[in-house]
Amino acid sequence: xxxxxxxxxxxxxxxxxxxxxxxxxxxxxxxxxxxxxxxxxxxxxxxxxxxxxxxxxxxxxxxxxxxxxxxxxxxxxxxxxxxxxxxxxxxxxxxxxxxxxxxxxxxxxxxxxxxxxxxxxxxxxxxxxxxxxxxxxxxxxxxxxxxxxxxxxxxxxxxxxxxxxxxxxxxxxxxxxxxxxxxxx
Length: 185
Prior knowledge:
Topoisomerase I, Chain A, domain 4, Gyrase A, domain 2, 2 domains, two-stranded antiparallel ribbon, 57% helix
């Protein structure tokens, strides 16, 4: 009984860390990466479609993204979606491909990004702790129902705490890696 509850909470914590990783990947740190375009959807024949399903995205240089649509008719729509997004990079199109030149980060923009990633990391930590709290409540309920002894409850809660600490450390490691990436000139 306790094992299932704990393994489910561990799985949920793992998903939370994955969400934090994706959030960090979509933040621009002065280096071109196709993940920058993950959140942008294009109105493709009336259907919101992610750019990576409409085009080939390549990184020929450290500060350049090239988007080559498979359907040339979708080029203006992709361009429009990029301009409407919060990416803040003007697309340059030559009729066949769209180029996004990633500008050098200013000190002010770096400071803003640091605030954003710290907030996202804290949200991830809070989510992991909420999962811990819910798991402990489930374990206590199981003990009240007579499915767990007090010793098993204590052991299970200790295990949940160790798992929580491990995932919080993982989020902290992701945060420190992203901070170094942002501060790198």
